[in-house]
Design goal:
With 150 residues, the protein is of the alpha+beta class. Helix content is 31%, strand content 35%. The protein is built from 3 helices and 7 strands. It comes from Nocardia otitidiscaviarum. InterPro entries: ASHA1/2-like_C, START-like_dom_sf. Pfam families: AHSA1.
């Protein structure tokens, strides 16, 4: 297996602007992905994502914020601290108008560059595949709930 990147797509019946807000605003991100999120959607901004009562905390750095089309950040730093020269994973949300809604293209790259041994690479890649297969539909459900709320 290559373990180079994870690519997923989902269509949601919401505008680019709504979807961009959901993938780039920490208050929204904490509703569909992490339990807590703290960052500014500005390139270079450093923040964190936390799960399970802060049992698992990941540093993250915003790489691109081009509303309403693209939001990208780095995370999974080797020592848990955001470091611009350290290898890390890059998550990109590309938003494309599609009919009356938005196509969300999620890409996560950088697995091979992490320098993990083959077994660790396979494990991490598999966990991220499983994670995105769970969280991307949650993102869609969250967006749907937002736009259908009175």
């Amino acid at each position: 297996m290559e373990y180079g990147s994870i690519e997923r797509e989902i269509h949601v019946d919401a505008t680019l602007e709504v979807v961009y807000e959901v993938v780039s605003d920490p208050r929204h991100m904490a509703q569909w992905w992490s339990d807590e999120a703290e960052f500014e959607a500005t390139p270079g901004a450093v923040g964190e994502l936390a799960w399970g009562n802060r049992e698992h905390v990941e540093a993250m750095t915003v790489v691109r914020a081009d509303p309403p089309r693209l939001f990208a950040f780095r995370w999974s730093y080797p020592d848990g601290t955001a470091d611009e020269i350290a290898d890390s994973l890059l998550v990109t949300f590309e938003l494309v108008p599609s009919g009356s809604g938005t196509l969300i293209r999620l890409t996560e790259t950088g697995f091979r560059e992490m320098g993990w041994a083959e077994a660790k690479l396979a494990q991490e890649y598999g966990e991220h595949v499983t994670g995105w297969d769970y969280y991307l539909p949650r993102l869609g459900e969250y967006v749907t709930g937002l736009v259908s709320a009175p």
